[in-house]
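Q: Here's a chain of 261 amino acids. Please give me its 3D structure as tokens.
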Amino acid sequence: MKCVPYGLLAVAALLVGCGGNDPEAAPIGPVEPPAPTGPVFIEAVIAPGGIAPTNPADYVVQDALNIEVGQTVQFQLVSYADNGVRTVLPTDNWRTNDDIDLYGQIGVNSGLFTASSQAAPVANFVGTRYRDVPYSAAYQVRNRAAILVGQVTDTTGAPVRDATIEFYNSVNQLVGRVRQPFQGNFRAIVPLNTTAFVVVSDGLPANLRRAFTYDGRGYLTGDISCAAPIEGPLSIGTNTIPVVRIARTSDPEPDLDGCGL
């Protein structure tokens, strides 16, 4: 239709005929991306062969501070609803502070990160923007070592999201740290001489006690003198440890028999 304005009547015809008030007309200009449904995180998803899984059920989320040399992961900006549903937010402006790609290269559009053969002595940072809001997270490339896979849950079996675990050697030196993702399973890279761990008290939900059970015994959170032993020896590759269960405040207080009490 050709719109020719002739006075006020023609202006009215122009609005209707050219889609000014047409509910079926295509929107003009950029469309606002959807708002997050809950807390927003940057997470690293393992991407074998440089290809991230297309089925969300196949995602293996690992702590970004535990990326192995030569490994490829895809950084994703995700939000979690109250019911735990994970939504990947569309973003394509990924950057790191490693300007010379010393520890790896990231795809600006894809978020795919391939670690170099050089481990980083300290953490770096990866970032992106969504709905004009900046998000960032720490990541670190580590030398290949033992991989510890496990899970922290409450006594109902529900994952304790965002729980942090610290790992120690036989002389109580801190040798590793991992944050359990919202998804509920942690994957840590630790030296072969790792002998024990503790669950960090800070950040645990208020409805959980500061005590946990592991391999049938009770331990205090945040107390290296009451660390839980890891059966050794560990080996290069994947090592699975038993589930760590944190008591709820509504549960009986667990016996701290792992602490010798």
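Q: Can you summarize the key feature?
A: The mean pLDDT is 87.
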